[in-house]
Amino acid sequence: MTEEPPPIRQWLRDNGYDIDERRRIPAEAVAAYHAQFPPVDDLTGDADCDKPPAGA
Where would I find the Lsr2 DNA-binding domain in this sequence (predicted)? Predict the structure, then answer.
């Protein structure tokens, strides 16, 4: 079983980003987070969520 990544706002604060709890997160900051923790498809468990489904 893999470890869950930290919440994005917590990770950003821990890595020096000045993030307000109620404001939008800049795209560059989200990209930095996803570079370290790639999104995972909840249905397939696949880390590459952008590829089409098998057989499509």
Answer: 3-35
With 0.85 as the threshold, say if the pTM is over it: no
Contact assessment for residue 46 and residue 40, using Cβ atoms and an 8 Å cutoff: yes
Q: Compute the distance between CA of residue 44 and CA of residue 47 in angstroms, rounded to an integer.
A: 9
Give the H/E segment covering residue 17: none
Determine the Cα–Cα distance for residues 32 and 17; give it in Å rounded to an integer: 11
Cα(51)–Cα(23) distance, integer angstroms? 30
What are the chain's domains?
A: 1-51 (4.10.320)
Question: What percent of the chain has pLDDT above 90?
Answer: 45
Measured CA to CA, the distance from residue 41 to residue 27 in angstroms comes to 20
Would you state the pLDDT for residue 48?
Answer: 59
